[in-house]
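Ktr system potassium uptake protein A
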Amino acid sequence: MKDKNKQFAVIGLGRFGSSIATTLYKLGYEVLAIDANEEQVQKLSETVTHVVQADTTDENSLKALGIRNFDVVVVAIGEDIQANVLTTLILKDLGVKYIVAKARNELHGKMLAKIGADRIVYPERDMGLRVAHNLVSTNVLEY
Ligand code: ATP
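Predicted structure tokens:
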């Protein structure tokens, strides 16, 4: 049975992060969504539990949000690799139990692993793999 008391935080509300945040919320979980950009924050205001504007490379902002109490924190910051890595490092230092981080390439992924991210995802690569597999599987019409 799924534990619906699990609390999630998603940092970086681009296409990937907002898709994760809104999906988890629709599935019945509590979701805190965070982005530095006010526009992104506005877009999600109706579709997650809480949404806040914060720069997550600032340790004090993350502390003030009580980030260490969340069961899973997703770092979905994309283009700004420095912000992605710094945020992951701070989350790790603050003792977050399970960190999922999005990587842009293999080297970035390696760095995230060294910092201690628990799961590293490569959205474009993983989706490419999935589509390719689907194209050659017997149920081509399924995807
Ligand atoms: P996607 O492919 O998911 O659309 P992307 O890879 O193009 O996203 P970005 O748009 O660069 O990624 O980043 C995703 C979000 O992360 C943006 O909405 C951006 O405002 C946010 N972000 C960037 N830096 C920070 C930061 N320091 N703190 C919080 N949010 C940030």
